[in-house]
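Hi R.,

As promised on Friday, here is the backbone we talked about, encoded as structure tokens. Could you run it through your design pipeline when you get a chance and send me back a sequence?
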């Protein structure tokens, strides 16, 4: 079942030197799966996620042949209609999400507000739903966390709280923009396990944006590799280390591996032809 269909997506920004293409002709579909999008900083990964939710502010321009959520075109929606999609049907966890929380409101007030925006409920019912959401992301002492402010939470707790907030409305799709980049390895694994369990149990689609190829290969089902705003290769995550595009090979060779120790890691050598070659479709 296809939840999201993106065809020929472009994101452009006018500059004094001309129009800059941040995302160039990206196409892919998302089912009830974990889809990874990887690439260097500036490759267009985050812009792709934001463009799906129409979060690119003017003078940025988003255009596409099709961005459809279960067959309904998002580009044809009014801003009011899009507000019913954002958070309700597609949620996005931003990079370093702890800083997306309001620093002057308690965590409980923010979770309750998120629930009441999505559901008609009194404050008591919303509070219990917020506690249930915290429990779903393995936060045991929910009452204490509800009374706390964001700055009192560790990085891992902040990540879990934001994931809980994004999942309160029961979205069909979760876009996670490098949600584990600021965490140590043990906490990283805990957050990934929580996301994996939620996606599996709720039948959601997940777009997992990251620069960590090993993490994506281990966690996702399919991977899109982006370079200079385009998708240059699509492969199964468990076969990422068998990728053939020279850019992907260069990224993989620049990573340390315990099974293949080397004195020096390779340095990625870019070919100008990569940015001019036609993009690859990730549509199924």
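Update: got your reply. Pasting your designed sequence below so it's all in one thread:
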């Amino acid at each position: 079942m296809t939840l999201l269909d993106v065809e020929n997506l472009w994101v452009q920004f006018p500059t004094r030197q001309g129009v800059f293409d941040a995302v160039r002709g990206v196409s892919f579909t998302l089912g009830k799966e974990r889809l990874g999008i990887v690439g260097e900083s500036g490759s267009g990964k985050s812009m792709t996620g934001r463009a799906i939710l129409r979060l690119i502010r003017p003078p940025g321009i988003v255009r596409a042949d099709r961005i459809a959520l279960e067959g309904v075109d998002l580009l044809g929606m009014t801003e009011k209609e899009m507000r019913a999609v954002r958070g309700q049907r597609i949620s996005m966890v931003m990079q370093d999400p702890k800083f997306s929380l309001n620093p002057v409101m308690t965590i409980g007030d923010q979770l309750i507000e998120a629930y009441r925006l999505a559901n008609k409920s009194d404050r008591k019912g919303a509070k219990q739903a917020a506690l249930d959401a915290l429990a779903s992301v393995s936060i045991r002492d929910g009452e204490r966390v509800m009374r706390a402010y964001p700055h009192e939470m560790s990085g891992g707790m902040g990540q879990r709280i934001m994931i809980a907030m994004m999942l309160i409305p029961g979205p069909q799709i979760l876009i996670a923009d490098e949600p584990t980049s600021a965490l140590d390895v043990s906490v990283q694994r805990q957050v990934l396990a929580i996301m994996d369990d939620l996606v599996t149990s709720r039948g959601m689609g997940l777009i997992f944006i990251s620069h960590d190829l090993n993490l994506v290969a281990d966690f996702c089902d399919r991977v899109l590799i982006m370079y200079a705003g385009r998708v240059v290769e699509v492969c199964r995550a468990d076969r990422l280390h068998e990728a053939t595009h020279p850019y992907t090979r260069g990224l993989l060779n620049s990573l340390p591996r315990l099974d293949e120790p080397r004195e020096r890691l390779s340095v990625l050598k870019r070919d100008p032809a990569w940015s001019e070659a036609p993009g690859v479709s990730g549509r199924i």
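One thing I noticed while checking it: The longest strand covers residues 18-30.

Thanks again,
M.
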